């Protein structure tokens, strides 16, 4: 994998010098569901005219509804170690920041997991800094065992996505054999000179090694990989085309592109100042980027974290975001600390949405979505190209909606309050009636009865 920077510059230049008519033609192609090439994407990125922008948002919203229905998947990050040998200039965990460094013991991980289970979480993203001595692969594998082994009442973690530093085929194979969900790695920026400036004198400095990490992960058998860039490091238009080319490379080589794309935006963190970053992305541009990614890669999940405000998250859900984190804490040991306060270690970055999952769930329902804790695809072997085929044919909705309803009921029964019971009860009945396939509707109704009688973890 090599990223042709000159080609991206040329495409951006061509789009910049385009006419209104050419931009409109790209919007029409998107509206007609035609496959878009890189120039089309570059043209969509250039659009500022309000009427054309409104059409882009409409197309993005329609694509999201058509492929995923109105479910929104919820997850939480779990930070297990803040040891880090790298000097990423935008990150609170960078090596030169003086702060207490530690990794959680097995018992502490289990305390964290119990706190997350008490909130109702089923799906986690394990996060750790890079440190081959203090946080090696064996530590990560043991952490995964600790998470999967921890059950509290009806609570259990059913899928753990892993976000750790780029590594070797051998170590990716170990992760694969342990049964991880998606392997997540952010390129941070696809622009090589910026990448090198952002990662001075450290293991992460090697742009090519980082860029080829998904190739090694897929060679090792990991089928679902989750990409991302940190918007704000470089020109976001360049980053979007970088993402598209990286995705196309994986599709060509392995038959399947990104399972998810995360959309973090640069935030204030310990030891850095936002004033030093000239490419910060404003709210309007950010919404535009979400919508264009939804159009460009319709079958890829788009993830938004609690770096964004509640208002922004609620808004971009309309244009394409399909997964959000809820109740997040980026401190090491932070979830348990919320329950039993002790000395705080600063988190990786500042959070903007500090709502608890219960509140997020109620807002989602009020806005017409079905909150989902579904983890079924990974557990049913619907990964890699098998998942993509279902997404491309639109049949994934036949499992997304029923599973969203069943996991919502599970949440209501185990972690809800009377207000949620009422809101969720109405939603359940309405959405059940909308399931067109009579067999599926019958199975879900029967499962709902079984869950009301005490069974758990039923899914399609
Ligand atoms: Fe370390 Fe990751 Fe932060 Fe870089 S972004 S300093 S690798 S924790
Ligand atoms: Fe995700 Fe699959 Fe569940 Fe749909 S059915 S929410 S795609 S895990």
From TrEMBL:
Keyword 4Fe-4S: yes
Residue intervals of the Radical SAM core domain: 68-307
Keywords, in A-Z order: 4Fe-4S, Iron, Iron-sulfur, Metal-binding, S-adenosyl-L-methionine
Cofactor(s) needed: [4Fe-4S] cluster
Superkingdom, natural source: Bacteria
Annotated source species: Faecalispora sporosphaeroides
SMART domains, per the entry: BATS
Gene of this entry: hydG
PROSITE patterns: RADICAL_SAM
Coiled-coil intervals: none
Pfam name, any one: BATS
Gene3D superfamilies membership: Aldolase class I
Entry protein name: [FeFe] hydrogenase H-cluster radical SAM maturase HydG
Example GO molecular function: metal ion binding
Gene Ontology BP terms: sulfur compound biosynthetic process; water-soluble vitamin biosynthetic process
